[in-house]
Design a protein that fits this description.
The chain has 288 residues and is an alpha+beta fold. It is 16% helix and 37% strand. It is built from 4 helices and 19 strands. It has a 17-stranded mixed sheet that branches. A two-stranded antiparallel sheet has the order 9-10. Strand 11 and strand 12 form a beta hairpin. The longest helix is centred in the N-terminal third of the chain and has 15 residues. The radius of gyration is 19 Å and the shape is globular. The chain starts with 6 loop residues before the first strand and ends in a 12-residue tail after the last strand.
Length: 288
């Protein structure tokens, strides 16, 4: 179903990981993969890493549906969860909201009053470590995978609502992420493809991370990637269970708490609002 009137959207970002947020509770939102990819184009569309649709939920305050820039649907996005939570809290006047996703149930709240204004904390749930839960194509220890690529070896694997593989090189800045990120993403070991992180533990409470997101590419930040990185590092004794994760776009605080839940705290920023004309959703004309 295509809209017959202009479709409102909110452009938001979490540390530069950017989204177009559409309210499917009020308007029909086309979800064809090709149309989403056109909208993601930063020259011909609005431009984003992920398109987020807010839908009605009989259980939570809302259901959050996530499509990557290539149009493919994915299970979870931590930065988007903070942005949607911020919108819902503003809409409802509540300080706590619940969000249902394909990757699981999320609870979010405004950070402590003493924190910087605009920070949101999301309970990202419990990490999953079984090789079938990542998933991998064969059984192995996910704390230290029997896997290497381009000289980088022994990563950890974690599912935090979506799949991640985390490498710990000596110098994260030297990693040729543009070249090897897509190769690892599509490796046969990862049957549903994988998000790829390279991380360097600077101190027990500080980790530098770069990310190649599945279906997107290099992004400024990845909330689930930061969660996976902290858990993978702490699991191997490389870091504490709470640390600042330094991304290209800024810092997220990640806490793998005693209740086994991962708590992510960071900003949610609105950039601007606009509308998408109905004609945009029409199929692109064939090339002359």
């Amino acid at each position: 179903m295509r809209p017959t009137t202009p479709l409102p959207f909110v452009k938001m970002h979490g540390l530069g990981n950017d989204f177009v947020v559409l309210d499917a509770r009020a308007h029909a939102v086309p979800l064809e993969q090709a149309a989403i990819a056109r909208l993601a184009d930063r020259r011909r569309g609005v431009g984003f890493d992920q398109m987020i649709t807010i839908e009605r939920s009989g259980k939570a305050d809302a259901f959050m549906r996530i499509h990557n820039a290539d149009g493919g649907e994915v299970e979870s996005c931590g930065n988007a969860a903070r942005c949607v939570a911020s919108l819902l809290m503003h809409e409802t006047g509540k300080a706590n909201v619940s969000i249902d996703t394909l990757g699981g149930w999320l609870n979010a709240k405004r950070a402590d009053a003493a924190s910087v204004e605009g920070l949101v904390t999301v309970d990202m749930g419990e990490p999953r470590f079984d090789w079938q839960q990542i998933p991998l194509s064969r059984a192995m220890d996910t704390a230290t995978l029997d896997y290497a690529h381009a000289g980088y070896s022994a990563p950890g694997a974690v599912n935090v609502g979506n799949p991640h593989v985390v490498f710990f090189p000596g110098d994260v800045e030297a990693v040729p992420l543009t070249m090897i990120g897509p190769q690892i993403e599509h490796d046969p070991l990862f049957p549903q493809r994988i998000n790829v992180e390279f991380a360097q533990v600077l101190a027990p409470d500080r980790i530098r991370m770069r990310v190649w997101e599945r279906g997107v590419g290099i992004t400024k930040a990845c909330g689930t990637g930061a969660c996976a990185t902290l858990v993978a590092a702490a699991r191997r004794g490389l870091s504490a269970r709470r640390a600042d994760v330094v991304l290209d776009g800024g810092v997220l605080n990640i806490h793998w708490a005693a209740d086994n839940h991962i708590y992510m705290t960071g900003p949610a920023t609105e950039s601007f609002r606009g509308t998408i004309p109905p004609a945009f959703w029409l199929d692109e004309p064939a090339a002359a």
